[in-house]
């Protein structure tokens, strides 16, 4: 399996966003959330780079961030940072669903 470069870039972007939020506004929650979610996404990209890939961590984190930041984007109407993170999260979600659909656990009917 190849390296999940998109996942690593996505993780770095989320982490850098937290650092920028702290640098610009002194927001400690932004720093903590950005670094925590960036670390989760980086580990998810690492799991996606394995053979066989395990996309569930990155899928769950992307889904959560898309919902959270989408709601913030809807409330504020500002593209940065909520809109950008929401769109990146949706992109990561779609990319993971398309790329790793055969590795996702699918519930089956009982006997």
UniProtKB/TrEMBL annotation:
Keyword ATP-binding annotated: no
Transmembrane residue ranges: 6-23, 30-49, 55-73
Similarity remark: Belongs to the TMEM14 family.
Signal peptide positions on this chain: none
Protein's UniProt name: CG5532
Native source species: Drosophila busckii (Fruit fly)
Alphabetized UniProt keyword annotations: Membrane, Transmembrane, Transmembrane helix
Localization: Membrane
Domain of life: Eukaryota
Record-level GO cellular component terms: mitochondrial membrane
Gene3D superfamilies (alphabetical): Transmembrane protein 14-like
Any one biological process term the GO annotation gives: regulation of heme biosynthetic process
InterPro entries on file: TMEM14, TMEM14_sf
Keyword check for Transmembrane helix: yes
Alphabetical list of Pfam families matching this protein: Tmemb_14
């Amino acid at each position: 399996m190849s390296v999940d470069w998109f996942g690593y870039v996505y993780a770095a972007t989320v982490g850098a966003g937290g650092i920028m939020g702290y640098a610009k506004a002194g927001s400690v929650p932004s720093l903590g959330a950005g670094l925590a979610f960036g670390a989760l996404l980086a580990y998810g990209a690492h799991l996606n780079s394995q053979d066989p890939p395990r996309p569930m961590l990155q899928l769950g984190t992307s889904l959560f961030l898309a919902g959270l930041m989408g709601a913030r984007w809807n409330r504020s109407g500002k593209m940065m940072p909520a809109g950008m993170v929401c769109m990146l999260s949706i992109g990561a979600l779609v990319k993971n669903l398309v790329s790793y659909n055969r590795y996702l656990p699918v519930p089956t009917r009982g006997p």
